[in-house]
Amino acid sequence: MSEAAGSPRATDEDAGQPLLPPLTLGPITVETPVVLAPMAGITNTAFRRLCRDYGGGLYVNEMVTARALVERRPESLRIIKHEPDEVPRSVQLYSVDPVTTGHAVRMLVEEDRADHIDLNFGCPVPKVTRKGGGSALPWKIRLFESIVSTAVREASRNNIPVTVKMRKGIDEDHLTYIEAGKVARDAGVAAVALHGRTARQHYSGQADWSAIKTLRDSLPDIPVLGNGDIWSAEDAVRMVKETGVDGVVVGRGCQGRPWLFGDLQAAFEGRDARHRPGVSTVCQTLLRHAQMLIPYFDGDEHKAMQDIRKHVAWYFKGYPVGSQLRTQLVTVETMAQLEELLGQLDQSIGYPGDAAEGPRGRAGSPKKVHLPEDWLASQELNEDQREMIKAAEVDTSGG
Ligand SMILES: Cc1cc2nc3c(=O)[nH]c(=O)nc-3n(C[C@H](O)[C@H](O)[C@H](O)COP(=O)(O)O)c2cc1C
Q1: Which of 18, 134, 311, 326 is most buried per CB count within 10 Å?
Q2: Is the pLDDT of residue 399 over 70?
Q3: Each residue of 91-148: pLDDT tens digit?
Q4: Which of 39, 79, 117 to mutate to test the pocket of ligand 1 (most atoms within 8 A of CB)?
Q5: Are residues 265 and 305 in the same domain?
Q6: Residue 308 lies in a domain
Q7: Do 53 and 197 belong to one domain?
Q8: H or E element at residue 323
Q9: How many angstroms is it from 272 CA to the middle of ligand 1?
Q10: What pLDDT is recorded for position 390?
Q11: Cα(228) to centroid of ligand 1, in Å?
């Protein structure tokens, strides 16, 4: 698969010992308690296939908007596709109203399209929070309760576990995670995942793992998963040790690095094997990724090439690839051209070390959170907000 080399263990006495027991989500047992974070535009069947080839875990698809799903829009049906060998089939729903949530979950259950459903309450993008959705929603705690309990009720018809993924809150003055965690638990979710940032932080600064520990301690009776700034297997081990979580959720750290799931599995099994791919493995993986995107986009090679472009910088982070070649790769038009461009690289170049490690993907600075008028005035919906919620669901991309 790719070059592997040793790296220091967390501690010597941990060698050979599993770090955690398997993660139990209702009837599902996830042997390696690692979750691929849902990432819109990234975690499609092609990328999940690459990750799954390296290690165990739960691989969540890109978020799908409940309303778009119920309306059977082709893009939504594409998003919830799974390969025949993908078990469990995990779908993330975004919704702002209980009725549409109920219809979407019922559709997934009755048509046997999912084994696990995650609800997105973490998205910070303005187009979503402006309508009261994503990370803005748990503030309206009764609306949150109603969405979660509707999803749990509909999913329970087929014993399908529902989980919730959320942020700390809107900002430091409007933290919601503990109350929302308890409400979700009481509504019957199988687990709660916390990204240790507020909406205001977006992707800036560092994820607050102490909040993850606080949530873990506040919810002793259900699994709590920690999310934010896991860039290596060592980070995952550290998060487990510092917070006591039952599993980790990994997003940006695996962009351009599906082999991270191999490292994570090894670390969770107490082994010190780590992938250290050279240029040749990276090129082969990038090509395979691009190839698998073609059937994902129903044979549309152009769409597949447009999609693969965003992965190029992640795959080659830290590798000596000249700026001219990088520019050509991010404007690639065909599979043949991609092969030709990658063929120009010296395939004997090895792993560049630290330059390929560390943060990758979205970062930036804190951002004003765009909210509906008077949203923060009360945790209850006012009449205008209730009307807006009814009409609010937008077809949107995640975050
Ligand atoms: C490109 C991108 C798309 C994302 N899309 C979603 C999404 O659809 N649903 C969701 O709950 N979170 C989404 N997120 C947030 C991630 O799931 C995760 O919570 C966040 O990146 C923090 O984890 P990390 O530090 O491991 O990246 C997205 C993040 C990125 C970078």
Answers
A1: 134
A2: no
A3: 999 999 999 999 999 999 999 999 999 999 999 999 999 999 999 999 999 999 999 9
A4: 39
A5: no
A6: yes
A7: yes
A8: helix 323-329
A9: 27
A10: 80
A11: 9
The bridge status of strand 4-6 relative to strand 28-30 is unpaired
**215 within ligand 1 shell (Cβ under 6 A):** no
The atom number, within ligand 1, closest to the CA of 253 reads 26
User: What is residue 4's three-state secondary structure?
Assistant: strand
Closest CA to 171 of 212, 139, 214, 148: 139
Residue 394 lies in a domain: no
Is residue 37 lining ligand 1, measured as CB closer than 6 Å?
yes
Per-residue pLDDT for 396 more than 60? no
Which helix (H) or strand (E) element contains residue 65? strand 58-65
How far CA 40 is from CA of 70, 85, 116, in Å, comes to: 19, 22, 18
Q: Token digits for 13?
A: 């006495």
pLDDT per residue as tens digits for the range 10-55: 454 556 789 999 999 999 999 999 999 999 999 999 999 999 999 9
How many angstroms separate the CA atoms of 229 and 223, rounded? 20
Q: Is the pLDDT of residue 6 over 60?
A: no
Same structural domain for residues 156 and 113?
yes
Amino acid at 284: Q
Structure tokens at 316: 């080659």
Same domain, 311 and 236: no
Atom of ligand 1 nearest to the CA of 231: 26
pTM of the full predicted structure? 0.95
Q: What is the mean pLDDT of residues 305-310?
A: 98
Yes or no: say if 304 and 296 are a contact pair by the CB < 8 Å rule.
Answer: yes
CB 263 near ligand 1, within 6 Å = no
Which is the closest atom of ligand 1 to the Cα of 134? 11
194 with 84, same domain?
Answer: yes
Distance (Å, whole) CA 215 – CA 178: 6
Protein residue with its CA nearest to atom 1 in ligand 1? 39
Q: What are the backbone angles phi and psi of residue 63, rounded to the nearest 5°?
A: -65, 145
Which residue's C-alpha comes closest to atom 13 of ligand 1? 399
